[in-house]
Amino acid sequence: MRTTSRGLIAALALTPLLAGCFAPGDGDAGTGTGSGGRLRVALAVPPVQALSPYSNDATVLSKLSVAEGLTALDKNGTAKPALAKSWKQNGDTTWTFELRKARFQDGTELTAQAVVNALDHAGAAKPKPRVLSDVSLTAKADDADTVTLTTKSPDPVLPLRLASPALAILSAKAYGKDGAVSPVGTGTGPFELTRLSGKTKATLDRFDGYWGGKAKAPGIDVSWIADGTARANALRGGETDIAEWIPTAQAKLLDDKTRHEVPSVRTDSLILNTGSGLFTDAGLRAAARKAVDGSALVDSVFGGYADPAQGLFGPAVPWAAGKRVPVTGRTGAATAAEVRTDTKGRTLRLATYTNRAELPEAATVLQQQLEKAGFTVKQDVREYTQMEGDLLAGKYDALVFSRVTLLDTGDAVDYLASDFTSDGVYNIAGLKDAAVDKAIRAAAAERDTAGRQEKIMRAEAAILRTDAVVPLVHEQAVQGVADGVEGVILDPRERSLIDVDTHLK
Amino acid sequence: MSLAHAPAAARPSLWPAAAGRVLAGGALLGAVALLPWLSGADPARTVLRARSADQNPTPAELAAVRGQLGLDEGPLVHLAHWLGGLPRGDAGVSWVSGAPVMPQVGTALSVSLTLMLGAFAVTALVAGLVCARTVFLGARRRLRQDRAGTTAAVLASLPKFLLASVLATVCGVWWGWFPSSGWEGPQSMLLPSLALGIPSGAMLGGLLDQALPAAFHEPWARTAYAVGLPPGRIARNALRRTLPGVLPQLLPTVVALVGGAVAVEKIFNIPGLGRLSLDSAVAQDLPVLQTATLALVLLGVSAGVVIRALRHALLGRTLRDGALPALHRPSLTVPSSLRWITTGCALVLLGLVTAGLLRDPLQVDTAARLLPPSLDHPLGTDALGRDLLARLGHGALRTAGVALVVTAVSALTGLLLGMAPRASAGPTEVVSTLPAVLAGLLIAGVTGPSVWGAASAVCAVGWSPYAAQTAALLEQERASGHIAASVALGAGRLHLLRRHLLPSVVPPLLRNALLRLPTTVLVLASLGFLGLGEQPPTPEWGRLLSENQPYAELAPWTVLGPAAALVVLSVLAVTGSVRGRGKGA
Prior knowledge:
heterodimer; A: alpha+beta; D-Maltodextrin-Binding Protein, domain 2; four-stranded antiparallel beta sheet; 14 helices; 22% strand; globular; B: 585 residues; mainly alpha; 29 helices
């Protein structure tokens, strides 16, 4: 048996060699234990572009208070000062922003020139960050701490736009020649990103030169755990202090004290394809709308962590409820018998995707509701990227869809325009309705905040009248926060999580 | 087919095998490089989606991405560019992140290899435990009764992801003995290794356990016992006789875990190669996907070569000189308990199906969600209030049927290919480490979503264990004296095949196939997210397990039912086959 023992020795010798590869690039295990008041955070979406602000990763920078924009959003979704201490509008297209005294984490001063540089890079990024997709922005430094921003066409929501994490101001060092952007040590926030290890871990230390005072926590250790159950496990096992987005199936397993639900700006709805197939018939759409009851999903599929749908905008959009316009002039619903004759034996192709665990379950509940109303339903459930092309090509009759209603700009018009106007790029419903287009255009042109909100709600009613979309529920996000942590921000927009005041008791 | 006895002196040429490896690896890499063009899914769209989930796919943005990635140049330019960089150790940059590919794949590969070694240790241990009794009794010549291998069948049919969930919850969260997730040191290696190694070990142990009695039955063992050699010596030699037939199974069972342990990697948050390649495949991030595939191909081929060398070293000169006695099972008495187990399993399944078929598997009742077992719902209800007994019963025939057909097709393909060992060695090694998901993606790209897509994808990769097994057993059988005698007596190829070769290959092959049956069920279900296979809400055992997995802790009965059903099916298949053999002998 000489050969096998040799093999065994080789295998044994190989083990420690390979065992050197734990937690790539993370040598010192000492910092990972939450010692000395450091916060341990488990985030859900691993970085795709090394935390570049022009990608999905942008929100990480704002969640962990690494980088800031000129403005920030307050609870009601209006702009508040951040790196700009004040601003004023000089004309239709020109705004001036006064900068505050602040330092970048690499020691350089925040200057107007730095802001211009950062905004120029954002504008030149390819593909363009979503927040700049419908606007062209020119920045000019007036003096050391004054920046003038000019837009090509009037942009009433510019201050909201600037709060987007994609427009975070980083120091000149952050912008590489090849278009890559590195937030490591280049932000202005209370926490400095000191190391990023692949897609698994990041280390943040307190930045003592923060303009808003020293953060209470000495640092943050971030780990990315994509699987929701694993995130919940990490929190329950005491391996992390904060775990975001606990899946509803796991939420019940958490202690009451650690479970914090927050209304999210995500609305789940049933999109009916008005462009082709079964639901070009308004009567059938109305029948589907009548058959579908989203409130049945709240306690079952969502385990209570959702609110029954009020419209497109839920409780996370505080002004929506007070300004809601009743929907009138809807087509009458076809009866079950009429549905059977009108569908002429055609099957309703009901699509949804697996990326959000609740959606396939919701689709099954809806299937039963629709079948009761006389439809014959066939599901198609796949990974989102596997079906996006088909969705936009209108290959399905209905889609159970989860959508963020306040996108980067924090302004609802953006969502309405891309999803429901005739030329909207994300118009899965295939809606081409002159009244809807007009209502959305009117909202987009309105500059006064209150007036804009009213017009948005009028557009909502116009959209709902067509039955192209049946809102089901407004999701709630469940954030897991261990008992000893104070000052975690529960933000419906999922842009903030930790700031200067967050700390361990 | 080279069925005839190879002259002992002539060393077989290495060229066909090498050519087979290069061709198979090249074909796979070519298919991967063509993936976006095959599937018709615009990589610009998938890459944009991966970079920024809420970005509107406007034509201008898509054009920008397309320009950035140079997609208009077509697949060949890309492939050439990527291949050109490889000699310099440059595998290009990721389409999604823009970061160099080589370090990413290198790190993920080393993580996965470490995990694989851990799983291998557990596999060896479990396999040892499974056949410990046979070794102990055999070495002391007290082996009278045949064994059904029920334990092996039960352990082998445990779903790895379920085992992983349970271990993470119990040992990680409840007891806090080990970290529930992460990859930070040897302590985070234990739980995933157990989850991966226990079913694999049971599978290999089950195969070894069935092969061992034949070795103990050989004349040398009797002589050794008679002259009083210690049992340990006899056991060692018996293992040395039987291991070479089982070793090739390490490739599809253990080495394949490097790329194929996605579910376990997710549950334990391990940054391994499985997740990396799946993510890159979904985002159509070709440079990463190609490099990961290349790594898997190289790993498969080198592991294949090592295993081959190990087998030859174990068998030694006897193989080369054609002096290997054939392994033939002694006729052992079939234990009477076996009949009871088989009948019991059959009755349970029959009862399950009959009781289930009388109920409605699709009736959603949101008020009755996650109810524990009761008179109304003997197996409880799932998260949508559907009756689990009904879902199990309705899913039984479809699940077992599809899994049996897939297994039969795979085993037959494997048997045929294994008969041409030199030509098929390359494809077998390459396919062994190929994750079924990747095959599924390629199939979905060509055919689009389809009911039969999952079955074809699993068939496309599922034959490799059987081909490896056939090739190994045939090689040993051909080197045995009685084949030489038959040839000398003028036996033709067909006669050799029918009377000598197949009878020695088919029984172990059958056992292997039956032990792999539960895995097939799970793999079939794991392709659902690509739109392959039956769409929900059709009940199917694999789907029942995966859709209820999140509720495993809150409502354990939602996964216990389907898992137990799978175990019963597997035990029935394995014990049934032993009883069949007992009658035949």
